[in-house]
Amino acid sequence: LRMESELRRGLAQGQLLLHYQPKASLRSGRIVGAEALLRWRHPLHGMVPPGQFIPLAEETGLILDIGAWVLEEACRQIAHWQERGLKVPPIAINLSSRQFDHHLPMRVQAVLDQYGLGPERIRLEITETLLVRGPEQVIPIMNELAAMGVGLALDDFGTGYSSLAYLKKFPISTLKIDRTFVVGLPGEQNDCAIARAIVTMAQQLRQEIVAEGVETAEQMAFLRGLGCDQLQGYLFSPPVAADAFAQMVIEDK
Ligand code: G
Ligand code: G
Ligand code: NA
Ligand code: MN
């Protein structure tokens, strides 16, 4: 209860911020995207990672206000970078399943309009937990976002409920291979088989594929060999503050 009110106050008092983790092309090595990741700078406890407060925010519904803040803050930051002449790649924003209602497309459009951004400037990362509500609930919302030109990425792929039958009905432009399958590459045969199957399937479905949690050069080499498009992970860069990310983009020539 105490943490809930502290988090609410933290949101109101500007204690939340976004870090950005770059995604690199496995072909060129260039920065081709980034994921915005929430941080809470608590006045006493310092930087609190989202794993420690997002579950509570989800339970209490505070994630709706936090999610609205994240969307706006990411768009504000992108617009700010663009005004400075920075060529920032598309920024992926995580969405809680609870944000995924029929108002969402309109809300996203309003924030894009507010900051004068085209839909290709952002991506939305969703997780398989959305599917518990059933495809008839979520597919129309996904279709609306896709029609607006906002790309959807399915995060943590392979860990949740997703049935392959649903996958073909979803207008998903990107699959993110969960890091639990990346960690064992290239030594673990099972992880190799799973990674290969996911990449092959994504290619057939014409989805872009991002490997998460890439920490070693051996993992990178294996994923490149599979034809995976992008990597995200500590090997390339941890999540960094906005200014540090901007500097990486400037130096990425
Ligand atoms: O950065 P870290 O590994 O601690 O993130 C933990 C979890 O928090 C991840 O699953 C990530 O997707 C989630 N997360 C990070 N930022 C956001 C956000 O802005 N919104 C939502 N809903 N989840 C986020
Ligand atoms: O659930 P989601 O995929 O959004 O989680 C992203 C989280 O993974 C981020 O909070 C980030 O801190 C973490 N992360 C990013 N790269 C790596 C990595 O190379 N190794 C590990 N263990 N975690 C990572
Ligand atoms: Na994510
Ligand atoms: Mn993920």
Summary tags:
10 helices; binds guanosine-5'-monophosphate; eight-stranded mixed β-barrel; TIM Barrel; binds manganese (II) ion; 253 residues; alpha/beta; single chain; binds sodium ion
Structure description:
This protein is of the alpha/beta class and 253 residues long. It has a domain at 62-238: Alpha-Beta Barrel (TIM Barrel). The chain is 43% helix and 21% strand. It has 10 helices and 10 strands. The chain has helices at 2-12, 54-60, 63-83, 104-114, 135-148, 164-167, 179-182, 189-204, 217-226, 242-251, and strands spanning 16-25, 31-42, 46-48, 91-94, 122-126, 151-157, 174-177, 208-211, 230-231, 240-241. The protein has an 8-stranded mixed β-barrel, surrounded by 5 helices. The longest helix has 21 residues, at 63-83. The radius of gyration is 18 Å and the shape is globular. The termini are far apart. The model has no long low-confidence stretch (mean pLDDT 95). The site of one guanosine-5'-monophosphate (G) has 13 residues, from strand 6.
User: Which small-molecule ligands are present, each listed once?
Assistant: guanosine-5'-monophosphate, sodium ion, manganese (II) ion
Q: Give the proportion of residues in helices.
A: 40-55%
Gyration radius from CA atoms, angstroms: 18 Å
Tell the overall outline.
Answer: globular
| Mean pLDDT over all positions | 95
CATH architectural category of the domain at 62-238 = Alpha-Beta Barrel
Q: For this structure, what is the CATH homologous superfamily of the domain at 62-238? A: EAL domain
CATH class of the domain at 62-238: Alpha Beta
As a percent range, the share of strand residues is 15-25%
**CATH topology heading of the domain at 62-238:** TIM Barrel
Structural class per helix/strand content?
A: alpha/beta
Largest sheet: 8 strands, mixed, barrel
Terminal CA distance reads 48 Å
Question: Low-confidence runs (pLDDT<50, min 5 residues)?
Answer: none
User: What's the order of the H and E elements?
Assistant: HEEEHHEHEHEHEHHEHEEH
